[in-house]
Structure formats: structure tokens, C-alpha cells
Amino acid sequence: MAESVFLAELSWSAFQDKVAKNVLVFVPLGATEQHGPHLAMNVDVVIPTAVCERVARNVGGLVAPTIAYGYKSQPRSGGGEAFPGTTSVDATTFALVLRDIIRSLGSDGIRRLVVLNGHFENSWPAVEGVDLGLRELRRDGISDMRVMRLEYWDFVQRSTLDRLFPEGFPGTELEHASLLETSLMLLLRPDLVDLAKVPDDGPAKFPTYDVYPTPEGFVPASGVLARAHGASAEKGEWLMRDHVDLITKAVRSEFGL
Amino acid sequence: MAESVFLAELSWSAFQDKVAKNVLVFVPLGATEQHGPHLAMNVDVVIPTAVCERVARNVGGLVAPTIAYGYKSQPRSGGGEAFPGTTSVDATTFALVLRDIIRSLGSDGIRRLVVLNGHFENSWPAVEGVDLGLRELRRDGISDMRVMRLEYWDFVQRSTLDRLFPEGFPGTELEHASLLETSLMLLLRPDLVDLAKVPDDGPAKFPTYDVYPTPEGFVPASGVLARAHGASAEKGEWLMRDHVDLITKAVRSEFGL
Amino acid sequence: MAESVFLAELSWSAFQDKVAKNVLVFVPLGATEQHGPHLAMNVDVVIPTAVCERVARNVGGLVAPTIAYGYKSQPRSGGGEAFPGTTSVDATTFALVLRDIIRSLGSDGIRRLVVLNGHFENSWPAVEGVDLGLRELRRDGISDMRVMRLEYWDFVQRSTLDRLFPEGFPGTELEHASLLETSLMLLLRPDLVDLAKVPDDGPAKFPTYDVYPTPEGFVPASGVLARAHGASAEKGEWLMRDHVDLITKAVRSEFGL
Amino acid sequence: MAESVFLAELSWSAFQDKVAKNVLVFVPLGATEQHGPHLAMNVDVVIPTAVCERVARNVGGLVAPTIAYGYKSQPRSGGGEAFPGTTSVDATTFALVLRDIIRSLGSDGIRRLVVLNGHFENSWPAVEGVDLGLRELRRDGISDMRVMRLEYWDFVQRSTLDRLFPEGFPGTELEHASLLETSLMLLLRPDLVDLAKVPDDGPAKFPTYDVYPTPEGFVPASGVLARAHGASAEKGEWLMRDHVDLITKAVRSEFGL
Amino acid sequence: MAESVFLAELSWSAFQDKVAKNVLVFVPLGATEQHGPHLAMNVDVVIPTAVCERVARNVGGLVAPTIAYGYKSQPRSGGGEAFPGTTSVDATTFALVLRDIIRSLGSDGIRRLVVLNGHFENSWPAVEGVDLGLRELRRDGISDMRVMRLEYWDFVQRSTLDRLFPEGFPGTELEHASLLETSLMLLLRPDLVDLAKVPDDGPAKFPTYDVYPTPEGFVPASGVLARAHGASAEKGEWLMRDHVDLITKAVRSEFGL
Amino acid sequence: MAESVFLAELSWSAFQDKVAKNVLVFVPLGATEQHGPHLAMNVDVVIPTAVCERVARNVGGLVAPTIAYGYKSQPRSGGGEAFPGTTSVDATTFALVLRDIIRSLGSDGIRRLVVLNGHFENSWPAVEGVDLGLRELRRDGISDMRVMRLEYWDFVQRSTLDRLFPEGFPGTELEHASLLETSLMLLLRPDLVDLAKVPDDGPAKFPTYDVYPTPEGFVPASGVLARAHGASAEKGEWLMRDHVDLITKAVRSEFGL
Questions:
Q1: Which residues of chain A have pLDDT under 70?
Q2: Which chain B residues are Cβ-neighbours of D132 within 8 angstroms?
Q3: Are C176 and C35 in contact (CB under 8 A)?
Q4: Catalytic site residue E44?
């Protein structure tokens, strides 16, 4: 069996050896969510998994299986649940999954954890999951697990954004199925991108509030919230380099690696 | 974007077209669980995903993302939670995940579902998840979703088992990290098998009851419950052919495909 | 007040004396479930209670009140919830009841527990209930409770089954309201058996999968899954002797009694 | 199989015939709780079951299995959880059990239900359980189930209390393991009463508030809250007659029987 | 910033100083519930908050924010949920809120707590909330928090009731929107009382049982369960003096203040 | 009883009249959270309540009681739970409270709701609470409730921020106990502000990730995340005018008022 950076590709005994060396484990949080007519629905699984894989190689860590079903898509950040194929779970469900994974890894001896999120809406249920997981571990007598929790897109240089958006960055929330994600997918899985189908109906113009149920026309019909035109694998490469370099640096700094 | 049998590799609009044709969706249930020193811990993800993929091709269905964290491993069927790397969730958590997926797919218009299980301990929480999912859908006014639920290993011909176990089949429960799973992994992911590490400490001799906490020595130290010697990709091929053919046949029969 | 093997027939002070001697407590798990037109619906309460009573006498233990509402009946093992009178609870509900009982007994000082199941579908929620109960006790500082968990029907000699089924044992799952249960009820509560109503519509021919909602005709109309003809109190006696002897032996062995 | 007033002593087909006639079902709520050194711990099971049995005979109803594990005993009404043998469940657990029973009976066609409580602390979780059960049934399209919920001890004539307490009735809350319950047990199960052990340490003098954790000496050491001296089967007979007559009358009136 | 008896009107640093002196905290439990056509719906918030405020001044304690949404109103004690404006939560929700508050205050260092209830139906979910909160704290290593739990109306002298009800006190349960609450509101918030609208349709005549769904005419149309005529601020003053004096005395006695 | 914009200051019958006119209800979401040494802990209650009150007057709406216990404070946005006095609830608890309020108001006939949040961390549990509440209502046959959900601070003109922050706005997340909140409190409750205690230790310099447990020194010791110097009631007035005007406009637009 070859060496692997993926936890589940190890045997339990190989994993045990890693635990003995206080290995750092990454838990990527993904989703199955519409990303426009030009992208597959696994964008939020592919990207954070790829980032974790690269950072884990840099720091000698392991990547646990990516959670593939995320918290419910919201109209203003992901288009919302009404798009067919978006397959999501309730907040309590999501938090319990992460709680249980943390409890399980903690009882195995893992003391360094990075929860790396790739789906905007997961952010808060993930905060809760981490809190519940650490609470349970403390009650089981384990109080020395340290957890970093982050969104990969927050790790990018200002200069990179400037290169990507010469006319100004529209902001993270609208970056759904748009330039950044499309470029990263062109880098990672070009077979799952169809540039010919990039829509022209964006960018979304949202009010500063939510409305439920989602009104007709609230979300662009394509599900794409900002423009994806101009996406390229090269730009994906710029982004990926930032994500990996900056997260690697942060992880090293926090865990003294 | 190429055609794909994996739901999450489609765009939402491509998926919508499938829904309009009443596409059948497979939900593979996996686990991250020790499978002895000679197998990776993703056996229960790799095999049911592969079975689903093949059956889905046969019947024109789609495969949703595999649930990678299963219900807690039990000593008599999987070695138990004490093996490092086995990363599991509580029964309620597991059932809620499946409930939410079913509710989500049902509200998208999916009316034909196959829940295909690859981890013994998932069986009953999966029953609950299906029941809760259909209950919620009924309360949302959707009462015509039809769900098959199955364990892939129940689809094998007697003659195949006789060929595999000339001295008699030890039974499904002990088939953990043993001949069948090892052969299937040799077929599907030989890079995740290390035959040199197949242990000699089995087969497990369990009493007809559980004991908690698991006593010292209750489970073979290797985590392998029956013998894995003699496993081969060819035998994996025999099994896979049975699983795929018989499940295809059952699915066609149940859904009139 | 006479001595009693039933916990709830003792005063608290008498129970306290037993706890001081580290008494073993049995928790029987039952159900209120259809058992064909010829048997009452309390079969899964009567039998495990009777087994517990007899084993408890043998080992000087106590029998806690039987849980009378079980996990939801499944078509392939109990006929399913559609039969009127089958009155069941959700998996989480069942697990919480058992969790709470274990926590309550543990905080009273009980350290030896046997959870004896008489309803097939309870098996897995019972596993979860035991795990949750012990988890809570550990967090309350109690880590030395030891729990056995078993299905009574797994304690039978091969030779007894051969005597009962000269043409071959159809297997545990189909043993619902059939020869074994009918014989045991004839032994224990003949007033709750009406042999004249033993149906002829079995044995059930189930596929190797579940279908939800249960299709018309999936389950024999009588709710009886295998043949009950030939049942007798004498056969019930053979079975009961095996159950009691073998469980007594196992309990003695596990708890060093 | 003899006719029986107990639901679980019927076959499903006999029960089905009753349902077709709109049978009224009683669900007795009990507990396993200390009742002093002179009474068994099943007092709250024995009495409500007996009341239900008699009323059911009067009105042609059926008695479902008694819930044997009640909500947590409170110091001021039952002595509290610290007494060994008191085996109780959390409020949510109790409410879920009752919810599920009501949903299950409602889906069988039952439209008339009496929830008859025999354990003070069950009162409010039972209110919640009924509310949740009816809520679920409404969402399943069943809105015509009618439920009575009562404590049996509220059905007694003033004149009977005057006969029993010539010096004044100390009130329901203190009636734990005292004159009323002891008399009823002498009537119903004299084998579970040991009058020689009636303690002298009562009556309890409680403040008008709870304190947690329960302070030393808050509850009489015996667990008996008021005096049990003078209890007799004859007095139990007076009480039982009132309970049965008055509840029968109320049930007939509410359900037009 | 002025000194305040209300916890939330302090800065965190001022609160920290109080914690260092082992300050006693009051948690008032209220509701938003109909109180007849002559009273506002915040009666169960205004009164317990006012009682807490006064007692807290007496004993040097702090008053945490009042819980404004209570457990579901019941027909026999509050008129029931059908009255528009009654806005309530499920039992589990209520218990979890109180559990979390207790856990949060306990982890801050609070060791003396008074949970003071102003809404009849909150009583039992509050018992559960306290139990769950203390259970969690124990598991977090904090076992020395002491909690008093009380209903303010239980602190009144017999002589006061005799003065208020020369013809006899109808009892606590019917005291909903009636003489006592109306008088207290005239004292505390006369702007929220409209004596001209005091209805004449009471007192309610309830059976000794609940019926669900609530039958037509079960509850007086006004929502007032007993007579409110004769209410006055002066009578409110008599009551408030009793409540404050007697609760102050009990708190001092229990906490040795 | 005077007319009031606060729902709980109406009688049920006055509220009923409002419901008949399809009144819009505001639910303010608050918290009890540290806001530095110079502000009381009820900032997140005072401000959203005041905003709701003013907007409700503008549009003829009603303000339901403010939820006073919010979701757990996070280090990067509120300082975190470690500050004494911050008293918070779990995500599930918070969502259930909001779910129940929405269900309760919906069953009363309310069809227009504004959920106005004043505590950053409440945002996502509020999204979940709204979703669960509307889901329950739909299952109860009510599908025409429309809900706006917003954070009040998102309603401010760019020009106002420019006036307030001539050197550039540090961003919403750091605006905790800083210039904006301090100014608003000086306007609304100057008695709860102590400008002399405004700390100098900010602004916080957070990394772009969370760390759990919160490391020493991660959060400024004062709990203030950005500078509060320069706060004034006049600036509070500028802000309040924007919040009220812009939210009024949005509400009118969404609900066609």
C-alpha cells in the first residue's frame, strides 16, 4: 500500500503510527450544490479537498474524507435550495456530523485539527460542530485538542485579487460559480467545466436582507451570482498557490510545525 | 462537461433534465473504518460506490455522493471503535443525514431511490433514515417516492460463494476485511491493498452476545475477523459481477426499468 | 413483602441491600407487535421477560420492568408497521429510553447489566442505547459498569433446532409468529394462543432488500412469516430450557458468578 | 384466545375488529419509583393499570401496555432520584415515547384515547407528549383523534377524603407512599406491602420551593412523604370505587359512550 | 454607568467583580400569554421581573434577563394556545434555553442561582432545565452550584389571601388574569390594565382532566379563569410585599446571606 | 390600556384586531454579551429593540419581545464566551426558539414577519430558525407567511460611514463595542455607557481563521474589537436615522405597505 496523504487510504496500523507522531488532520467541509450551468455540483468538494491535499503534503498532515453534503444553500450566497441537485442537510445535522468526527478523532489520539471549509453556508454550523465536539471531548477527559477553522477563500493576497479583478473585487459572498471557483475548477477538474455555458445573467443584485420563501426573480435564473467570464486555469493556479501557501503558513504558525 | 453517472459531476441544469425523465438515484452508504493492516480504511466507501456506479450505468441512473462517515463500528462485525482511524457518527446523526438527503432529493423531484449500503453497521440507522425521510416528504405533500434499501453483499449467487469458500462460507458478519472485501479491493483499488500484511490471527471466535466496554482480547488484534488469505482480483471480479448483475436485475424489476 | 426476582416488586430499601451486594440487573426489551391471527401482540414482552426471570433466579439477579414499546416493526422481520396494533417508537426514542435507564441504574450503583432483547428490530437501537448510556455514565465518573447485550434466540443448541426443524431451520429473521414463538407462548401463556387460527399463507418469500413504502402483497396477509404448524408447549419447553441454560452459562462466565 | 381488555393480549386481527368499532384506548403512565420501605417500587404501575382495566371494562375499551419508566422523581413529590431503585427518564424521552405511541395508535385508526397518569411527575411531560403526538398526526392528515388526559387521584369524592382523613387531607403532592397509595396497594397487591415497615419519619415538611442538588435531610429518610399508618384494603376499596366510577362517568361523558 | 440590579445593565468587568464576591443571580421565567381583555400579554414577564428586582436589592443579587417566551399555555391554567398573541415554545426548547443559561452562568463562576417562575406552565420544563443545566456543569467539573426554583405566588401569607378573598381562595390554578395578577399589574404597570374591560364570564368550571383538542366552550371566551373584579393597586401592594418579604427570607435562609 | 407598538403590551383581544388587519410583526434578536468595560451587556438587546420600535411605528407594525439570550459569542466578532457575563445558548436552542415563535405567530394568523437581528452571531442560527419555522407552518397547512430577515447594521448609507470613519471603515465584524455601538448606546441609553472606561487596547488584529480553544491574547483584554473613542450621541443619531429610514423603506417595499 502506497503512502497517502488521505487518511482513509491508510490502514489503521499505518494511521496509528501517524497518531503516535501527533499527526495533524484536515477535515474538508464540502457541499453538493448548484454552481451554474457551466460547473458540476461538486465544486465545493473538489476545491477544499485539493487545498487540504496540498497543504497536508506541505506540513506532513492527513486529509480525512470530505463531508459531501453541506448546510442548506442560501439565495444570497449560493442560489438557494430551490435549484435541483442542491442536496443539503439541516444545521443540527451538519453540526452533529462534525461533532461526531471530532469526538471520534479525538478519542483516537488526534490533537491537531484543521477544519477547512469550502462552502460558504457551512461556516456557522461548522463553528457549532467544533464547539460541540470539543465540549464532548473535554467531558471525556480530553482537553488538549487544538482546532483551526477556516474558509480557504480568505487566504488570498490582495495583489492576486487585484490581478484577477482589475475593476474591483465584487466580494466573497457573490463569488458563487463565478470567476474564482470557475478558474479553480479549470485548474483542478477541467472535465467538469463547460465554458460555453457560462451565463450572462449576473451579477446578482441582492438587497441587504433575506426574504423567505425566496421570491420569484430574487436569484439569477442561472444560479451564478457574479460574472464567470474570463476564468482560466492559469488564474486558478494563481489562486491555488495563494490558498496553499498562506494556509500552509498559518497552519505552521499555529501548530508550531 | 462530459456525461457522468455521478450526480455531483453534473451541472444543476443537466441534473434537471434527468429529473424530468424520472431518473433513478443511488445513495451509497459508506464508512471510514479499520479493515485490518492490509487494507485501507475506505473499503466501505470504495466498494459500494463502485457497485452503484456499475449498476447506475446499467439502468441509466445517477450516483449521489457516498456518505463517508458511517455508524459506529461494532466489535463483532467491524472490530469496534477502539481501532484508531475508525471515524464514526452516532445513530441519530447518521439517520438525520440520510433523512435530509432524501428530503432534499424528494423536493427536487426524485421519485426513485436506491439506498445501497456498504458498511454492516449502517443497516439499521439507514432503515430509520429512510423512514424519517419519507415521513417528512409525506408531510410536504410528496408520497410517491419509492425507495429500495439493500446491502450489496446480499446479492451473490450460492454457486459463487461455493467457489470462493470450498470449505464453507463463514457468514456475512465475520466477512470484515476478509476474503470477500480483500478480493474486491484487489479488483478496484489494488494500490490500497498490501497482501504481505494479511494477518494470521483470525478467524474471530465471538460469543453470541455483545459485551461493553469491549473486553481485552475480544476482537483479534489485527481487526480482521475471518481469513483473507487467498484473496485475488479474479475472485473480486466474480463477486463484483454477481453484485452488479443481481442488483441491476432487482432494481429493474422493482422500478419497472 | 415476599422476596421477588422483579426489581419493581422490591422496596427501595430491599433493592439497596441488593446493590450493596453488586446485584446483576436484567433489562428485557420487548415490543407490542402483531404476531399473526393466532398469537397475542405481547409475544415479544412475554418471552424475554420469562427468560430473564428464569436466568435471574439462576444467578441471583433482578429483572427490571420490560420495555413494552419497541422499535418500528420491519416488513421482512416482523411484518411492518401497517398491521393494526403494532405500536412502536422511533429509533432515537428507543435509544434514549435505554440510555436513561442505564444512566439511572448506574447512578444507583448497578455495575452489572444484561440487556436481553426479545424483538428483532430492537437490536440496533439497543446497541445505540447501551453506548449512549455508558457514555453518559463515564462523563458522570462511572466507568466500571459492564453490559452484556443479547438476543435470547441466539442461545439455542444446534441439536434442538434440528429436532424442531427436521427439514431445516428457515432462519431467525423469518421466525416471526412462527414455530418457535408459538411454541414458547404455548408454554408460557397458552391462553394467548389460538392454534385454530394458525394461518396457511406462509412462508414469506422476501427479496434480499427492503422496499418503502411497503408494496401490496410484500408481506403475507396474516403477518406470519414462516410456518407455525406443529407448535407445541413441549417444543416451547425444549427451547426455553436452551435459552435459560445457555444464557445462564454465558452470564456466569462473563460476570464471574 | 380469550377476550381481553388488554390491547397486547389481543391478536392484531382481533384488535382490527375493535378499531373498526372505534374502540377507546387507555394508555396508563407509570413509573419505577421508591415508595418507602413498606411498598414495592411498582406502585405507580400497578394502580393506574388497575384503574384503566376497570374503567375499560365499564366502557368497552382497551388498555395499552403501561409505560413503566416515568419522568424523574422530584424531592417534594416523590422523594427524588437519589433513592436507589428509582429508575427514570428525561422529560424529552418521556414525551417522545408518548408522542410515538399516539402517532402509532392514530395511524392504526384509533380516534379516542385516554392517557391516564399514575405518577405525579409524569403530568407535564405527558401534556407535551400528547401535544406532539396530535401535532404529528395532524401533519399526517389525521385531525380527529380526541384525547383525555388525567391523573387518577383527581377523581375522588370529597366525602371519601373526609372519611379517610378525619383530621384533614394533607394534599395530593405529599400523597407519596402514604395512606392512599398504601391502601390501594393493599387492595390490589397485598403481597407487595409490608405494613410492619411503615415508617414514622413523616410527614415531610417541605418549603415552597425546590433546591438542587437536594440538600441533606430535605426528604424524610424513608422516602415516605406523609403518614401511611391506618392504611387498609378497605380504604383502598373506597378509593378504587371512586376512581373507577368517576373516571368512567367522565369518559362516557366526553366520548358520548 | 450607574450601579444596577440588572445583570445585563452591567459591563462585563463590573459583573466580574460581582462574581468574585459570589453574587447570587436570579433568572426570571416569563411568558407572552393572553391575560384577558383587560390586561396586556406581558403579565408573566412584568411580575416575576419586579419580584426578582426587589428581592435582588434586598440580598445584593443580580437579575438576569427575563425569558419572555414560555412553555405552551394550557386551557385549564392559562386559557390555552388558541388565544391570539399567546406565543410559546415547546417543552424541549424551554428546557434547553434554561439549561444553556445555567451552563453559561456556571462557567462564568456563578454558584448561587434562583430560578423564579412567573408562568404556571413553565414549572415543569424549568425543573428539567435546571436538572439538565446542573448535569452539564457537573460533567464540566462544576458541582457546587446551588439552585433554588420557585413560583412567586407560593410566597404569600394565609392572612393575606384571607384579606383578598373573604369568601375563600379559588386556588392557584384558576388565578389567571384574575384578582391577584390584575392587582399586581395595577401596582406595577397600571398603564397596561383596562379595568373597564374586566369580563364577567368567569369563573371557569373545568373538569378534573384535560381534553385535546380543546373543545368549544371549554375555556371562558375572555380567557379569564376567575373573577378579576375588585382588583386594586393596594391589593397588589399587599401581595407584592408578601412575595418579596417571604422570598427574601427564603433566599437568605437557603444561601446563608 | 394605551395603544402600544409592543405586542406584549396589548391585550389578546387588541392583538386579535391587529391580526385581522394583517399586521406586520417584528421579532428582534438580541444577546447578553460583553461589550467592553464601558458598555452594559444589553447592547444587542437595546439597539435592535429600538430600531424595531421606530420602524414599527413607521409602518404600523408590532414588536414582539426581544430574544435576550443569543447564540454563543465568537472571539473574532464578539470576544467569545470566556468573558464573564456573556450568557448564550447553543445553535440548536436558538433555532428552536425562533422556530417555535414563528410557528406560534403563524398559527395566530400573522403572515408578515421581520426578524431583525442585533447580534452578529445570531445570523445563521436565525436563518435556520426561520427555515424550520416556515417548514412547520407549511406542514400545518400555512404557506403564505412571508419573512424578511436582516441585520440592522447593513442598513446604513455609505456617506454616513464616511462621515463616521474619515480614515476608513474597519468593517462590520470588528464593530463590537466600538464606535457604532457606543454611539447608538449614547443616544438610546447614555446611563449604560461610561466613556471614561473606553479602552485603548484595540483594534483587534485577528488572523483569517478561528482557533479553539481561544488562545491567550487572541482577543483584546477589554473585549473591545475596534476603537470606540469619538463616540457620541450625535453620531448615534446619524446611524439610527439611517437604520430606521432604510429598513422602513425596505419593509414597505417588500410588503407593499
A1: 202
A2: none
A3: yes
A4: yes
Beta strands in chain C (DSSP E): 24-29, 62-63, 112-117, 146-151, 210-212
Chain F residues within 8 A of A146 when measuring between CB atoms: 211-213
Model confidence band, residue C168 (pLDDT cutoffs 50, 70, 90): confident
Chain F neighbours (≥3 Cβ pairs under 8 A) are A, B, D, E
Mean pLDDT by 10 residues, chain E (257 residues): 92 98 98 97 98 98 98 95 97 98 98 98 98 98 98 97 90 84 98 95 89 95 92 98 98 95
In which domain, by residue range, is D173 found? 7-255
**F1: nearest CB among E16, E88, E191:** E191
- Is the dihedral angle over the CA atoms F76, F82, F83, F87 positive or is it negative? positive
Q: Tens of pLDDT along B127-172?
A: 999 999 999 999 999 999 999 999 999 999 999 999 999 988 877 7
- Total length of chain F: 257
d(CA F186, CA D140): 53
Q: Which residues contact E241 (CB under 8 A, 6 or more apart)?
A: none
**Pairing status of strand C112-117 against strand C24-29:** parallel
Q: Cell numbers for A232, please give them.
A: 482560466
Using a CB-CB distance cutoff of 8 angstroms, which residues of chain B are in contact with residue F139? 139-140
Average pLDDT for D95-116? 98
Q: What is the ipTM of this complex?
A: 0.97
- What phi, psi does D32 have (nearest 5°)? -115, 100
Report the alpha-carbon distance of residue B11 to residue A194 in Å, rounded.
9
Task: Tell me the average pLDDT across D82-110.
Answer: 98
CATH of the domain at D30: 3.40.50.10310
* Rounded-to-integer distance, Cα C97 and Cα C133, Å: 9
Size of the B and C interface in Cβ pairs below 8 Å: 91
Query: In this structure, is residue C192 part of a structural domain?
Result: yes
Rounded CA-CA distance D60/E256 in Å is 58
How far apart CA A99 and CA A116 sit, in angstroms, is: 15
* DSSP per residue, D42-102: THHHHHHHHHHHHHHHHHT-EEPPPB-S-BPP-HHHH--TTSTT-B-B-HHHHHHHHHHHH
Question: In this predicted structure, what is the pLDDT of residue A170?
Answer: 78
Task: Name the residue of chain F whose CA is nearest to D142's CA.
Answer: F140
Q: Which residue of E has its CA nearest to C135?
A: E139
Measure the CA–CA gap between B50 and B147, rounded to whole angstroms. 20
User: Across-strand partners of F151?
Assistant: F117
Residue of B233, B186, B185, B245 whose CA lies nearest to B54: B245
Question: Would D139 be classed as within a structural domain?
Answer: yes
Residue in the structure block whose three cell numbers are 500500500? A1
Question: Which residue ranges in chain F fall short of pLDDT 50?
Answer: none
Cell numbers placing F130 = 426561520
The reply to whether F44 belongs to the active site is yes
Exposure b/e, E184-215, CB count within 10 A at least 16 = b: bbbbbbeebbbeebbbeebebebeebbbbbbe
Phi, psi (degrees; rounded to nearest 5) at A11 = -80, 160
Q: Is B175 a catalytic residue?
A: no
Q: Work out whether strand E146-151 and strand D210-212 pair parallel, antiparallel, or are unpaired.
A: antiparallel
Closest CA–CA distance from residue B159 to any residue of chain A (Å): 32
Domains of chain A: total: 1
Name which residue leads in pLDDT, E177 or B240. B240
Phi, psi of F124 (to 5 degrees): -75, -45
Q: Does D1 reside within a domain?
A: no
Contacts with E36 from chain F: Cβ below 8 Å: 11-12
Counting other chains too, the contacts that C204-207 makes at CB distance below 8 Å and 24 or more residues apart are C204/C76, C204/C174, C206/C75, C206/C76, C207/B250
How far off is chain A from B17, nearest CA to CA, in Å?
Answer: 10
Strands (E), B100-224: 112-117, 146-151, 210-212
DSSP D6: B
**Position F2 in a domain:** no
